[in-house]
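Supplementary Text 2. Reproducibility record for the structural model of the 318-residue chain.

All settings were left at their defaults, and a single model was retained for analysis rather than an ensemble. We include the record here because the model underlies the residue-level annotations in Supplementary Table 4.
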Amino acid sequence: MAIKKIEDIPEEYIFGRLLFKLGEMHGVIGPAQISSALYENIDCFKTIQPGGHRFINKDYRTQDLQTISKAVQRSFKCKSACEVPGQYLLAYHILFDCSLDYLYGIIEEPCPNAEIKDISKKTGLSFSVIEKLMSQEEIYTDDYLTAAYQYDLFLGPDSEDEDYPETNRSVTTFWDKILQSDSFNSIPQNWYRMACALYISKVMKVVADSAKASWDELPEWENFRSWKEGVWDVFHPDQQIFIPGGLTLKEAYEQYPEWVKKTYREMRNEHFYSAVDKQEDYETAYWGCAGKFDRALLDYFHQEAEKWCDSGPLPKFW
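Retained model, structure tokens:
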């Protein structure tokens, strides 16, 4: 089985697809490259022990690589980790520095760190988010302060002046302040309301378009009858629909198709405009939430920028 992309692996081979993704993340694509990586990694080699060899010996390189390659090829045809020999499962864990829970499909991210896993369980945050929060990355703002250097508001970054302000700021601290603010609740609240309003608006448009599209078509008998007896007669008892020639509804349906289409159109007309009105209402609600969302964020960031100017790390210039 030549595997150059994940689509080459049948969907039922769930473990095989997971193994391909892991290899892709680490720059080893497909069975051949993974086999070579397992062979070259001393810890992996000791775990696998191809041909009973505990240490790499160039004299047996071809045979050992063939043994590893056959096993890796079989791994790519496995539906779950339970089908993979234990020593190879452990070797994949070592090679890709991933959790065995991930290989078994218990967790969704290949995190080997027990501390991160515990934090994720307690907070609901993904492994990647926790790793970003723990990375302590910084934002460098010196390049924005050129004008301040030019006007001698403070000395440049090459100066030994002790008063030179620290302009590097922590990314994690930035997000920590947002989470402490009202934005922690207001942002998701407004976003979910926006999303729901947009969904209902789209649904109402489908209903309205469907109603309008069917106006010039002869409706199915059961559909026409249900609209007449189940909707119109119930909600408009004082506006009885005239049936031509004193016929029954079924007879009129069979003999007067143009009357049926006209009557159906009149009954659906109210439904159509009701859907149009609702669509417009929810579209207005969507943009209202969006505006509130924008204002809340802009207000927060504007206030923080003002605080930065008033009491941040930069020197006063007034």
